[in-house]
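Suppose a classmate hands you a notebook page containing two proteins, each written out with its sequence and a corresponding row of structure tokens. How would you begin to make sense of it? This section walks through that situation. The first entry is reproduced here exactly as it would appear on such a page.
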Amino acid sequence: ECPEGAFIVSGDFMTVDEVMKEVEEDRPMYENSGGGITVSGGEPTAQPDFCLALLKTAKEKGIGTALDTCGYVKWEILNEILDYTDVVLFDLKHMDPKAHKRFSGVSNELILENARRIIEREGVEIKIRVPIIPEGNDSEENLKDTAKFISSLGLKKVDILPFHPWAGQSYRLLGLEYPFAVGEWYSDKKLEEIEEIFKSYGLEPNRMGG
């Protein structure tokens, strides 16, 4: 914990074996539901060796695997991880490379190319997820470009993740100013309008939360 009490460190340092021990305790649930483990973060590919080892061990034990990623990772690293991944939960935040860099610090070119490459791989399912951020990526132009790109991949479904203000506490713990109004939510009407954009490109939107 920070001496000033501004930051809190949560979580534990664990080995692959320690994680798998906990995973094995839930094996009956996985077997009954057909589910498995999801490696997420943060960005799990930022710890590529651990991510790879964990997914490989899970696959060797017959446990289903999923990777939750922003897609900003060298293909050589991602490609190896995909050898032990059943499903990729892939975030698309913005289609304009300049806007993407302004909001996230990096361009989206590598991200889009990785999405295309995952599609070309056999044995790996990809699910595109689009977080919808007020005045960030919710313009009609960007939503249409996003839907057009997803459709070009040959996909028929998209997960929509509407913005919610629950992250405010995390910002405060990090000593950062929260950039959104407290209680700022999308209305059902606005979300329905967003969903119609994706439907117009032949996609079935699945609203998650919001």
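The notebook's second entry, a different protein, reads as follows.
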Amino acid sequence: MAGPELGPVGEVSAIEAHTSGPSSSFGEQMFVPCSQELLVDEVTSLRRKLEKERQEFSEREDELIDHCHKLEAAIETIVGQLQESHAAVAAVKNAEVERLREENDLLNALVKQLTTERLDSVSEASRLVKQLSIERLD
């Protein structure tokens, strides 16, 4: 069985010094009586250590909470920037779609005009051919 653990300054705690000893046949540690003063000192020391650890934990907890708040603020900023960027991209896309629709309407009008002019030209050419054919026959 290992000996008593060393404290932070390399000393054996009072309780461990007075309670460590040979093991009984059932593997239980045998307790050696110690003074109440040593026990009170050890309890006081442990309470101070516990309070120090609680304070350190509380400070670390506060740091973590502060860090979480900073992360939340950063996330909100990024989400806002993404929403603005998305709105700008959507506006550009919508403007491009509108421009393409106008261009398509213009091209459709030109096709219609050219088709009408071609039909008129074909009709005029047919009329001229008929007229020439009639004139030749006469």
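A careful reader of the second entry would note: Residues 1-12 have pLDDT under 50 and may be disordered.
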